[in-house]
Amino acid sequence: MGKPRSTHPHETSSRTPGSIHPPGPLSLTRREALQGLGAAALPLFACGDGPPAPLPSGPFPLGVASGDASPTGALLWTRYAGTSRLQARVWRSGAPSPDPVLVAPDVRVEQGFVRLEVDGLAPGTRYTYAFVEDGGTQESPVGQFRTALAPDALEPLRVGATSCTHFGFPMTTLERAAARSELDVLLWLGDACYNDGALTPDEFRASWMRTLAEPGQRAVRSAHSLLATWDDHEFTNDWDRETLDPGRFTTAGNAFFEHVPMRRLAGTPERLWRSVRWGRTAEFFLLDCRGERRPSTRLTAGAEYLGRKQMDWLKSGLRNSPAVFKLVLNSVPISEFPGAFFQSTAADRWEGFAAQRTELLSYIESSGIPGVLFVAGDFHLASMGRVSRTGPGARLHEVLVGPGANVSNPSPSYPAPPQFDWSSGINNYAVLELEPGRREVTVRYHDARDAVLTERTWAL
């Protein structure tokens, strides 16, 4: 339970929340807030702006990726620009035999995308994989993933996490995260791609192509299996289902699933929320904090930030989970953030839907559910601390990650003690070390040089 260790001159663990207040009442959209103050001098490209990116050539221009790992398999992904038949090959990493343990012939390519589910693998095991054109003339880059732990396994896990990666910003942070071979899985907390302004399938695909062509993106997506949620910019800024055109939702959602290695659920292909369990060590609850919220209910006793079905599923899942750690993946934080600047955008997150926020936090605490940790992105700000100063959530913790490649949050004051242990706007990724035997999680943040920004251990 050591004190946070700060090693960067621009970290802010001692600033007083709300100590600087802009004049007059604030009424900002989240995008206006991020473009305001000191951020206005930094490049913030909307979809279609900024210098053109040199797109990679060849049959596999975006490399490979994997995600949704299970104890016996994973979903393998690539963007294929060729015309030959493809096969996929999977090898057990470090095995003495050069022969693949799995070969999938005649892999299906749909509109240039491969989304291949592989099964029959060993739990908790590292594998490498590649796609090969018929005849072996061209081979994709090699990717790596680890299958999830067996259902009854109890062992430490190393989990990476980031969010908010905008085309046009250096993605060195992602390259550093890609080099960490000990990570078991990478959490992506939304805003992986900024598609604001895109309307048609081709426009969404062009935006995703431009972002995923970045070397840092290709490196980290090939190095680690992903667990991802979406936020707003995968669709458009600050969207909700009450105001977003249904056709745009479908187009943007399809583009998300085209580019993110994540299974579409049978019977509910548009549904994002789900849970993924890694043995008895951890269960990851991936939330959809955008697609079901109803702003018209925000100030009522029936506020819906999550749809009722999703909320009931989450509460039941947390209560019944056999895992030591229950990681709740928000795209937008559930913590209270004091100060006029952060309160000006409270309507866009859990805080603005107070009744449902209180319902969830009170349920977790009154039920005595141990091991719950919230993980979030969106804020262009990294922080760790208690969810609430007092009342429901005061005994729970949240970790904010990112930005991975973007501007820093321009607030004149950052979250600080006693509620928050540390905060920083420096581009970062985090590593969460889950130690189930001690019921401890150690959170460590790294910058683009891979220097450790700070470290903290909590007993959950």
Question: How is this structure best described in words?
Answer:
With 460 residues, the chain is an alpha/beta fold. The chain has two domains: 64-145, Immunoglobulins (Immunoglobulin-like), CATH 2.60.40; 146-459, 4-Layer Sandwich (Purple Acid Phosphatase, chain A, domain 2). Helices cover 17% and strands 25% of the residues. The protein contains eight helices and 20 strands. The protein has helices at residues 30-35, 172-178, 201-212, 215-223, 246-259, 308-320, 340-343, 354-366, and strands at 64-70, 73-79, 86-92, 102-107, 113-118, 126-133, 143-146, 157-162, 185-188, 225-228, 274-278, 282-286, 325-329, 372-376, 382-386, 397-400, 420-424, 429-435, 440-446, 452-459. Strands 5-2-1-10-9-8-18-19-20 form a nine-stranded mixed sheet. The protein has a seven-stranded mixed sheet with strand order 11-12-13-14-16-15-17, covered by helices on one side. Strand 1 (64-70) and strand 2 (73-79) form a beta hairpin. The protein is globular. It starts with 29 loop residues before the first helix and ends with a strand. Residues 1-50 have low confidence and may be disordered.
Write the layout of secondary structure elements.
Elements: H1 30-35, E1 64-70, E2 73-79, E3 86-92, E4 102-107, E5 113-118, E6 126-133, E7 143-146, E8 157-162, H2 172-178, E9 185-188, H3 201-212, H4 215-223, E10 225-228, H5 246-259, E11 274-278, E12 282-286, H6 308-320, E13 325-329, H7 340-343, H8 354-366, E14 372-376, E15 382-386, E16 397-400, E17 420-424, E18 429-435, E19 440-446, E20 452-459
Parallel strand pairs: 1-10, 8-9, 9-10, 12-13, 13-14, 14-16
Antiparallel strand pairs: 1-2, 2-5, 3-4, 3-6, 6-7, 8-18, 11-12, 15-16, 15-17, 18-19, 19-20
Helix pairs in contact: 2-4, 3-5
